[in-house]
Amino acid sequence: MDLVERYIYAVVKHLPKKSRIEVTNELRANIEDMLPPSASTAAIKAVLTSLGKPEELAKAYHSDHQYLIGPTYYHSFLATVKLVVIITMSVVAVGKIIAVTLSAESTPTLSFVFGHFFDIYGTTVLSGFLSAAIVAVVFIIIEKVVYYEAKHGKAIPTTWDPGTLPAIPQQQIPKYEPIVSIVFTLIFSFLIFFTPNFRFFYTTAEPIPALFNADRYNQYLPFMMLYIALYLAMNIMKLIKGTWNQQIAIVNTIQNLYFCILATMMLLDQSLVEADFMQYLADLLDISLRSVKDGFASARIITILVIFIIAIIDTVMGFVKAKRTVRENHFTAEITSKR
Question: Interhelix angle for 41-51 vs 2-12, to 10°?
């Protein structure tokens, strides 16, 4: 009867959570009534085939057609929009950076980079929104056309094989998510451990003074290593478990708290930023050294507030996801339990 459970799950996953259990019991009872005693796999497939595709049957439990993208295409829409947005934003960002770099008459300076940062960022984000909107419009058109044809009896019948039903999923965290986080963390680790002076930008005359005081920066390296270890441990747990739980939520809370403390200490450490860099920035922008220091002080406070807000949201969402996993597990157990 595993095929029946997979079919029921495939139907009710398209329905609102409040009606899933009721529909599950009703649908299971109907299928059992249609099956002979000790039904063979062939008999089960015949009954499920007569019921039709799960997403089509799910539509029967909706009282009307009040959605722009219905259950038939919703999951395909989400997968497509994520892929298109990521590819589009990546291509636009790289292309914009190359175009801006080539437009510079000489070697790009710090002020040149700052002057074009928001242009690159804004263009990249806008391209993401536009690509998502275009994908949404395409799927809405497909949904409406198919709905119109089905309503007027113009739908082309298609065969469907219950044997193609996917297994009931156990993996709630996509595998690529922790893998991507681990890869980027390792890249970031390489940068902070092997480029402590952050000498990324050069003028045509002489190199820009180091951003950080190397000796002071090195004192923070062990604490930064510990944070990276915590972050990697959390992502490895997510990769192994495949779903949020209380343990992962607790580790996420610890690493968020630790990051907030470490970031606050580093941001408030006046000796971490080189005085020569401050003076260089003042000369570059043609403002007083006091204005640069005041600007850094304001930026520190704003950055700390943003870090704490993001950390709080991320921590709360970790426990919400863990609780949601418990609910989904109960739901799955209800779906797959025998009457």
Answer: 20
**Is this model's pTM higher than 0.70 or not?**
no
pLDDT on residue 293? 86
From the CA atom positions of the chain, what is the Rg in Å? 28
What pLDDT digit, counting tens, does each position of 36-81 carry? 877 788 888 888 888 878 777 777 776 544 556 666 666 677 778 8
Q: How far is CA 329 from CA 11, 229, 320, in A?
A: 17, 30, 14
At residue 273, the 3 state secondary structure works out as strand
Please say whether the beta carbons of 315 and 256 come within 8 A. yes
Q: What angle do CA 193, 264, 312 make, to 5 degrees?
A: 105
Note whether 15 and 58 are within 8 A (CB).
Answer: yes
67: amino acid identity, one letter: Y
State both tokens at 134: 């275009």
Place of tokens 């630790």: 258
